[in-house]
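Need residues for this backbone.
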């Protein structure tokens, strides 16, 4: 799969994303946008998000380990707490907070379930699903169009260079001479993003790095498929989403893909991702 996605990455010709995207909203406006988004999705999740904000379960501060945000679940209290590092209230940064609310929603749905289901390959599907739906919501409502396009492109680039990282680091291959010899790949012609991703791999903990890449990459890709389904049938997609949550960590991969309405062939040849790039890529 990563081989085909890498071809999409190369074909897409991403432009530089170093353009400044300063504050476009203040905190009060940001909260209203988030409330409106979740209220449109359903009242249950809107109420959860609103209660978390009103009850000081969300903190805007620096997160350790260079993470953008983290969601802590405390099952005994049936509550989640979010810490998110927002430096400027633009669409990309706000979408990172929505991502963490996606984790809180997942936890809220499984807090009555005593089983441990927190490190499955599909654990990032709920958070990436709401993150992608939020970007679609911003696009549909013309919320800072330039910022929304930038946020889409960050989403796609992270997805694609994670798959590229899986491909180029599998078998613990991070030395460029080995890349050239074993895969006949010229390291110097790789997209800059992928070189950066490879350089950040920890050779001692590379299995964990690859596993994290898989988790985030699968979550992002499946979220794109689910968001496409949502445009055509919101109610069915909402039901599928709940079914996915109930299966994470308990069912095999194909069962979860079946719930999404997907199969391995569609994932290997991601036509919906190609359509997304065509519609939202920075020209």
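Answer:
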């Amino acid at each position: 799969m990563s081989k085909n996605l890498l071809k999409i990455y190369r074909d897409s010709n991403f432009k530089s994303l170093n353009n400044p995207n300063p504050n476009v909203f203040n905190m009060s406006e940001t909260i209203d946008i988030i409330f409106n988004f979740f209220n449109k999705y359903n009242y249950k999740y809107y109420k959860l998000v609103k209660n978390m904000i009103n009850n000081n379960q969300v903190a805007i501060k620096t997160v350790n380990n260079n993470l953008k945000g983290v969601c802590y679940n405390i099952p005994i209290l049936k509550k989640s707490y979010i810490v998110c590092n927002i430096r400027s209230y633009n669409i990309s940064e706000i979408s990172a907070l929505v991502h963490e609310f996606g984790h809180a929603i997942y936890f809220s749905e499984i807090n009555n379930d005593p089983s441990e289901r927190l490190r499955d390959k599909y654990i990032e599907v709920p958070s990436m699903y709401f993150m992608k739906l939020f970007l679609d919501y911003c696009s549909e409502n013309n919320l800072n169009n330039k910022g929304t396009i930038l946020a889409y492109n960050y989403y796609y680039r992270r997805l694609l260079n994670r798959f590229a990282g899986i491909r180029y680091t599998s078998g613990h291959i991070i030395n460029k001479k080995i890349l050239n010899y074993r895969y006949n790949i010229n390291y110097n012609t790789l997209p800059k993003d992928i070189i950066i991703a490879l350089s950040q791999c920890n050779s001692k903990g590379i299995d964990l790095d690859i596993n994290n890449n898989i988790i985030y990459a699968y979550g992002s890709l499946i979220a794109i498929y689910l968001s496409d389904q949502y445009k055509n049938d919101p109610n069915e997609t909402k039901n599928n989403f709940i079914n996915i949550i109930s299966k994470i960590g308990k069912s095999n991969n194909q069962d979860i893909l079946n719930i999404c309405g997907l199969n391995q062939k569609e994932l290997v040849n991601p036509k919906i991702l190609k359509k997304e790039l065509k519609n939202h890529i920075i020209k």
